[in-house]
Amino acid sequence: MAASPKGAPMSASIELIREKARLLRIHSLRATTQAGSGHPTSCLSAADLVAGIFFHAMRFEKMRPNSATSDRFVLSKGHAAPLLYAALAEAGAIPVARLLTLRDLSSELEGHPTPLVPGVDAATGSLGQGLSVGAGLAIGAAKLEKNSARVYVLLGDGEMAEGNVWEAAAFAAHYGLDNLTAIVDVNALGQSDRTMYRHDADVYRRKFEAQGWQAEVIDGHSMEAILAALNRAIATKGKPQAILARTEKGHGVSFIADKDGWHGKALSRDDLARAIAELGGAEEPPAIERRSSARPALPQPAEFPAPEPPAYKPGQQVATREAYGTALKKLGAVNPTLVAVDGDVQNSTFSEIFGKAYPERFFQGYIAEQNMVGVAVGLAARGHTAFVASFACFLTRAYDQIRMAAVSRSNINLCGSHCGVSIGEDGPSQMGLEDLAMFRAIPGATVLYPSDAVAAERLTEAAARRAGICYVRTSRPKTPVIYPNEETFPVPGFKVVRESPHDRATVIAAGVTLHEALKAHQELKTQGISVRVIDLYCVKPIDATALGAHVRATAGRVVTVEDHYPEGGLGEAVIGALAEAGGVLSAAKRLAVTGLPRSGKPDELLDVFGISAPHIVAAVKQL
Amino acid sequence: MAASPKGAPMSASIELIREKARLLRIHSLRATTQAGSGHPTSCLSAADLVAGIFFHAMRFEKMRPNSATSDRFVLSKGHAAPLLYAALAEAGAIPVARLLTLRDLSSELEGHPTPLVPGVDAATGSLGQGLSVGAGLAIGAAKLEKNSARVYVLLGDGEMAEGNVWEAAAFAAHYGLDNLTAIVDVNALGQSDRTMYRHDADVYRRKFEAQGWQAEVIDGHSMEAILAALNRAIATKGKPQAILARTEKGHGVSFIADKDGWHGKALSRDDLARAIAELGGAEEPPAIERRSSARPALPQPAEFPAPEPPAYKPGQQVATREAYGTALKKLGAVNPTLVAVDGDVQNSTFSEIFGKAYPERFFQGYIAEQNMVGVAVGLAARGHTAFVASFACFLTRAYDQIRMAAVSRSNINLCGSHCGVSIGEDGPSQMGLEDLAMFRAIPGATVLYPSDAVAAERLTEAAARRAGICYVRTSRPKTPVIYPNEETFPVPGFKVVRESPHDRATVIAAGVTLHEALKAHQELKTQGISVRVIDLYCVKPIDATALGAHVRATAGRVVTVEDHYPEGGLGEAVIGALAEAGGVLSAAKRLAVTGLPRSGKPDELLDVFGISAPHIVAAVKQL
Questions:
Q1: Is B369 a catalytic residue?
Q2: pTM here?
Q3: Nearest to residue A563, comparing CAs of A616, A606, A595?
């Protein structure tokens, strides 16, 4: 590590790096023993690698390790967190005196790393995700910022079984990310068992080579070999590089090295003393520093001027998915940090409208949703406003990555198109019917669900401006424009689309079901029944007080209707919020897609699965 | 295809197979034009391959194509469904006269295949999942049933970008599944774009070879090459085989062959006539057969005698995750179809208790959750009672596969351990806090959440006996046994754990929060406030009438408390059900984990994140 201008790595002497590796081991053992839990053996196998990476290869500003020009390190095997913290401390990014706060509720040094720690860009700990984040960081540096920052990702051999790793490997090779180096700690021991290939690191080499990577196998405890391999990686042009390092779990401490049954176990105080003695001894650690060294600022969404407003005619038939694409293009004109990633469905999600206008800011992710989300997290960590789109149902493929994006405090935006049974003939495999439940259960997420093209444009802009995970749910069918172009859509918020002093129930809907609710309103009117109709374009968060006032005004009677399964969707969100508000609800009916749908025509399916206008009419009358 | 005894494939003449391929093309074109949608060009690229597989390689009983000894075919590229239906029709498994019902609401021939169609074992259409299902079918035949049935999986080149494919490839090679053949239709055209490697089929060959497969590249429109490659695959011992077939999307029809912009588009009537003429013409199709040919019976869970009952002492400290493992072992003794798959965490989920007792029925899935679920679906399709376990949070990795398992009408069981903040120091990446939302939104799923070891054993048994997706949520900490060993746990159902005629509120909880509720009950009692405490061990389905009666008896006041995010969990399930029951709720308070948790001690976290006994006491008093 050197706070140096760009150029060849300014390496410390090999002896100094060996001493750093020794200290990293001791720090890792001490911190886990102090915490009473953690994964010391997983730290010891990788200590030489991490010392080589941090104190030979990487160039970063120790006070600003997340700066645009700093090289980055991603610890994909997040359970080796104590090793990362030790390296950051020895590199001067955090005080050594913090290390013994590991896993304490007061500490930013959690059991697995999060971006609360300086130098960490994304949370890890769900295995197999770090290489995608690294690819996102690397593509941001190479293709968008066009600087020479490099990215190093340390993976465990156990996590190489995760498909996400190979999605990332293919993506990185496709984009020729020669600023990306993967280092695999092949210690041959998983949590419960030997790994699939044990110490046969050549298998991993062949897999990486088949993906188009430069790859080599080394002895992961030979510092000469490590530094030479890192030098070769840095010198490689046109392709990413993999270093497959044969290591020993628990290396350096005889009584835990390569032993079964030591995964995720801290040493006792006595064993710690023995271990430190074996490692050559160490000074007493400094007094624990209780003041947190959390990084001063997490990335915030870029600010940008107002984009070109929507330009639709009332009643014009436009799919919200198409308006999403139009919005992205308009946002791209005023927000140069905006980038989009799609999974070979950009002609369905309409990301292609942006991609055609700004090809240099559009990344084809092919059919690999997990990697797309990881890449977006990497891009967002560099301050880019990242939008990921796929069919709503296929975003389920990346639920773990989205969950981890939230732990990363990432600002990524996701668009799920083709929600619900209204897609029609393609059938249930293509219908997003659990996406509201999925995104609502992401802490801090914003869930937006436009019902017309104006709302879709405005809400896409809202997502771009908003921190945290934002989800925009779009629909396949064309629906009429119902809002004037100048309408605004605050978040949280909703629109009262039909209202009279005589309303006897409130119907709450969004997307295609809002249009069914409007038909139902008309039909009920002819029968002399007046109902309020609310467009709940923001499904999370919900302003329960404001919504409750409307429901109260209609004698506490509410019907919700959604093109989604009943669980965790719009209906439960509304009922849950209103029930807790207290004294609001008198009678409630939730209409949603019950049972597994089939292929059929969209209108047939809305009717057969219980969310069409006639069902709304019946539900209102039943109340 | 031949309804033959086992032995060498009884091939039809090559000319007959070519004629079959021609008919498959015509059927596919006709059906999609009739439907007005679908993916005809994706059928045409693979028609020769499918003809070779069905009419040369495969041996199955045409009236019982899903029988144990029949070879199986999995269409991983599910959008080529019309081609599969055409092959099944030409093979005699369904009437040709059904083909023109494609995508009609009345028809089992949906836009993407489901097991309602004879010969289909699992729903496909979310790409990249079929090879895992195929691996599950193959491992069931080879390792459990020990018969000679073979499995053929047809994949598209676009879906090879999905990591799930490579998880499956590694798994199949690891288990030496030489009864598994993957055929990749390398037509070089994705939905929106050329695929990553276009026609460079050698890249796929190298990737498969790196995984330990036998692999070769062929011309996918040469019937000689196809049959020879299939013969070589069948003759291969000890490893699975991949045939990488270079093809042309839309092959056989000049005006759509290898053309951009034709993905997922049906031909017009005029174009259809031109296409059929180019293909050599065909007789008029038979009159449409409206009577469904859906397969007579989907697999049902095996029946088995009562297992050894739980054997705990009241107050004994046992983690529900450990009781799950104990239950699996007891069930394994009475249900020989029971198999378990784990993802290198069996010493944490306690699947290892079963694995040690029945090693031949335990499959190490390594760290690859997507593949585990697909393998389980394949095993369940053969009638095995499959249990998959991982940390609850890591099951999010397989949400798309679980979603598709529901479309498959599969009977798989999943156990998610380490739910909630009660895991403590490992931090948020390891905490399952969205799993209830995720599984509740699976249609027909059963969601079970035991609070003690007796319940955990009984509910694991209930899962094994129950159709559909069953989820068992287990906890990391040891908790006291509160039920007698003979207690039964009907599904749906709940237990009233504390009850008096003077109860002023109902507290509904499960898992660790039930024990907090019991503490709160005790504390409130000392303050002269009596509350009812309910263990909602079955979170889905809920018997709202029975539950409502208790809430009504406590003046409609209810507090829910769960170690889960507020959205889509126990609280929303209860409130949603009660609100709709009508007139039950007067005041409600939901306690759940709000905000992103941190590392810390379990008890600290329960308290800091608002779900400990003091919070329950406060919530009750607030109501």
A1: yes
A2: 0.97
A3: A606
CA dihedral B591, B592, B593, B594 (to 10 degrees): -70
Three state DSSP letters for A133-162: HHHHHHHHHHHHCCCCCCEEEEEECHHHHC
CB A26 within 8 A of CB A282: yes
Find the residue in A nearest to B190 (Cα): A344
Question: Using one digit for the tens of pLDDT, what is the confidence trace for A435-476?
Answer: 999 999 999 999 999 999 999 999 999 999 999 999 999 999
Check A216, A369, A434, A572 and give the catalytic one: A369
DSSP output for A508-553: EE-THHHHHHHHHHHHHHHTT---EEEE--EEES--HHHHHHHHHH
Rounded to 5 degrees, φ, ψ at B235 are -85, -10
In this complex, do A114 and B428 lie within 8 Å of one another by their Cβ atoms? yes
Determine the average pLDDT of the residues in A489-499. 98
List C-alpha distances in Å: B610 to A222, A323, B565: 49, 41, 11
Cβ atoms of A440 and B436 closer than 8 Å: no
> What residues does A363 pair with on adjacent strands?
A341
pLDDT per position as a tens digit, A551-594: 999 999 999 999 999 999 999 999 999 998 887 899 999 999 99
Q: What tokens appear for A289 in the block?
A: 């520093």
The owner of tokens 């992961």 is A220
Q: How far apart are CA A383 and CA B72, in angstroms?
A: 49
The residues pairing with A533 across neighbouring beta strands, listed in sequence order, are: A498, A507
ipTM entry:
0.97
Sequence-ordered alpha helix ranges (H) in A385-535: 399-407, 435-440, 453-465, 512-526
| Alpha carbon separation from A531 to A520, A522, A539 (Å, rounded) | 9, 9, 21
Both tokens assigned to B59: 């041996």
The Cα A612–Cα A591 span in angstroms is 9
| Helices A163-174 and A201-210, packing angle to 10 deg | 40
Pairs of CB atoms within 8 A across A/B: 347
Assign 3-state DSSP to chain A and report helix, strand, coil percentages, each to 5. 40, 15, 45
* Contacting residues for A7 by C-beta, under 8 A, at least 6 apart: none
- C-beta neighbour count of A235 within 10 angstroms: 11
Separation CA B44–CA A342 (nearest Å): 26
The overall average pLDDT reported for chain B is 95
Measured in Å, how far apart are chain B's first and last C-alpha atoms? 69
* Nearest CB neighbour to A112, from listed B400, B406, B429: B429
Q: Which one from B322, B352, B369, B457 is the annotated catalytic residue?
A: B369
Token pair, residue B303, equals 């029946």
Confidence of residue B562 (pLDDT cuts 50, 70, 90): very high
Cross-chain Cβ contact B344/A191 below 8 Å: yes
Q: Please calculate the CA angle A240-A79-B402 and round it to the nearest 5 degrees.
A: 80
Residue A199: count other Cβ atoms within 10 Å of its Cβ.
Answer: 17
A599 contacts A568 by C-beta, under 8 angstroms: no
Give B473-516 as a DSSP string.
Answer: E--SSEEE--S-TT----SS--EEEE--TT---EEEE-THHHHH
| Distance (Å) of CA A130 to CA A122, A138, A157, A505 | 8, 12, 13, 50
DSSP of B252-285: T-TTTTT-TT-TT-PPPHHHHHHHHHHTT--PPP
Cα separations in angstroms, A468 against A340, B479, B521 = 17, 36, 38
Q: Measured between alpha carbons, how far is B334 from B322 in angstroms, rounded to an integer?
A: 19
Triad B153, B158, B164: Cα angle to 5°: 60
Instruction: Report the side by side order of strands in the sheet with A214-219.
Output: A72-75, A151-156, A180-186, A241-246, A214-219
